[in-house]
Design a protein that fits this description.
392 residues, alpha/beta, Aspartate Aminotransferase, domain 2
Length: 392
């Protein structure tokens, strides 16, 4: 009789053979432009710490102050044990920041998606979802029990065709990422809104990589396109540009009231911890005070992307600080990443199933924490490795 997990051993061996086994490195210092990783000092091009807030002194001080006043954990779910004034203040501030009636926080951006989608649609309903939407959207759609109709990536024409082909439904919902996390391109939100309005279908956008990045002072993709009041559901996260952790759903008051009654991660899991909430409030303060960090982020991204392209690297369709270096096959991407690390640059390979087969890449995440000197060092290292491996 075979061991119960012999099949897992076989699958893991196959992943290693195909160059798809994911090895997770160990970080020994706080997030920043430079890190200690596996005992080595390296330039950090991996994290989603867009604005450098993950170790910002104002955020750490706010987290300490929240602990001093409220302790660490919330002790139970908000609907049973009550909610803290810190949580309600953060939700009020986030709603004002994003220009919506109300907002509700969750434990993560992933939880926000698996909370809101099943609360809005179910069996007998239809979801129109961009083919490259994030895994948390895909899982939220599956949990809902609704029929999932994938439309071609960022194709408004294919969305129209898919809507026309679905004639039996109860409720409908259109869902898109705002910024697509692997390619760094932006959803054509104005055109998607036009289609949604024509068919009276609610429109939902997951702005995880747009929060703190797009729009006036990082107010997100809806602000970027001037679509306030026209996008029905905005989902976001505080684990990227905000430098902490937590999810957000924002929109009309009626939406938030409904989620408080029916969103399962809100009803059955404890809320964000006090230090996380305190740090998030400090992040909102910083973003409301100045656009300096957002402006620096975009300047760094343009400098780095232009530098890579001038060397002959393929950076795909990126329009944002997410800059993929397209390499094709996973073994090459993993070898490229290993050689970068040996040269002191931390930039991980991404392959199947995170991206399609044949679309493996190094995904570079720019940050306002990087200096020009940092970026010049990174570009020189990419050039050295790219030439050694015959990529450029």
């Amino acid at each position: 009789m075979s061991a119960p997990f012999a099949w897992i051993e076989q699958e893991l061996a196959a992943l290693r053979e195909q160059g798809l086994f994911n090895t997770i490195r160990t970080i020994g210092t706080a997030q920043g432009a430079w890190l200690e990783v596996d005992g080595q000092r390296v330039l950090n091009l991996c994290s989603n710490n867009y604005l450098g807030l993950a170790n910002h002194p104002r955020l750490t001080a706010a987290a300490h102050a929240a602990i001093d006043r409220m302790g660490v954990g919330p002790a139970a779910v908000r609907t049973i044990a009550g909610t803290t004034d810190l949580h309600t203040e953060l939700e009020r501030r986030l709603a004002a920041f994003k220009g919506v009636e109300a907002a509700l926080t969750f434990q993560s951006g992933f939880n926000a998606n698996i909370a809101v989608i099943p609360a809005l649609v179910g069996k007998g309903d239809v979801i129109f979802s961009d083919r490259l939407n994030h895994a948390s959207i895909i899982d939220g759609c599956r949990l809902s029990g609704a029929k999932i109709v994938a439309y071609d990536h960022n194709s408004v024409g294919d969305l129209r065709a898919k809507i026309a082909a679905e004639t039996e439904y109860g409720r409908r919902l259109i869902i898109t990422d705002g910024v697509f996390s692997m390619d760094g391109d932006i959803a054509p939100l104005p055109d998607l809104y036009t289609v949604a309005a024509e068919h009276s279908i609610p429109l939902m956008v997951d702005d995880a990589h747009g929060e703190g990045v797009l729009g006036r002072g990082g107010r997100g993709i809806v602000d970027h396109f001037g679509l306030h009041g026209k996008v029905d559901v905005e989902v976001g996260t505080m684990s990227k540009a905000f430098g902490t952790v937590g999810g957000i759903v924002a929109g009309r008051q009626v939406l938030v009231d409904w989620l408080r009654q029916r969103a399962r991660p809100f009803l059955f899991s404890s809320a964000m911890t006090a230090p996380d909430v305190g740090a998030c409030l400090a992040a909102v303060d910083l973003l409301e005070e100045s656009t300096e960090l957002v402006d620096r982020l975009w300047a760094n991204a343009r400098f780095f992307r232009d530098g890579l392209r001038s060397m002959g690297f393929d950076t795909g369709v990126s329009q944002t600080p997410i800059v993929p270096v397209m390499l094709g096959e996973a073994p090459l991407a993993q070898q490229f990443s290993r050689q970068l690390f040996a040269e002191g640059v931390f930039a991980m390979a991404i392959g199947f199933p995170t991206v399609a087969k044949g679309k493996a890449r190094i995904r570079v995440m720019n940050s306002a924490a990087h200096s020009m000197s940092d970026l010049e060092t990174a570009l020189a290292t990419f050039e050295k490795v790219g030439k050694a491996l015959g990529v450029i």
